[in-house]
Amino acid sequence: MAVHESFSSVVAYVVEASVVDGQPKLHRVTAGVHCNLAVNPRTVEAQVQGAAIMGLSTCLTGSEITLKDGVVEQSNFSEFTVARITHVPEFDVNIVPSADAPTGMGEPGLPPLAPAFANAISRLTGKPVRQMPFNLA
What we know:
The protein has a single domain (2-125), classed as Aldehyde oxidase/xanthine dehydrogenase, molybdopterin binding domain (Aldehyde Oxidoreductase, domain 4, 2-Layer Sandwich). Helices cover 22% and strands 28% of the residues. It contains 2 helices and 6 strands. It has 137 residues and is an alpha+beta fold. A hairpin with a 2-residue loop joins strand 1 and strand 2. It is globular and about 50 Å long. Strands 1-2-3-6 form a 4-stranded mixed sheet. Strands 4-5 form a two-stranded antiparallel ribbon. It has helices at 41-57, 113-125, and strands at 2-6, 9-20, 23-34, 67-68, 71-72, 90-95.
């Protein structure tokens, strides 16, 4: 589980994960979102899902950004792992009902995914996850 607040919105994730052949696998993400009035709840749901998948990409082997002589070595996504359809978990997005003025949505869904996933992996393995992308070796 992890929680993040920004743009006056709060996103919390509870995740279900496993370790398959030494690699972390995310199975389900349950999100709680408080962004006051959700003018278009489907858009909020899509933003949370997209942000979570972006956050998931930062956890995957091959998503390292490396430098050589002060220059980034990766020039495009062919040299950087991003989450593919086979990595995408099931989602359940729950929006807290509110009539208050809408707050920011989009970015708040990204930061809590990696710590929630790391916490789940840590519970499974008994070892803290201290680097990204995750390295369980």
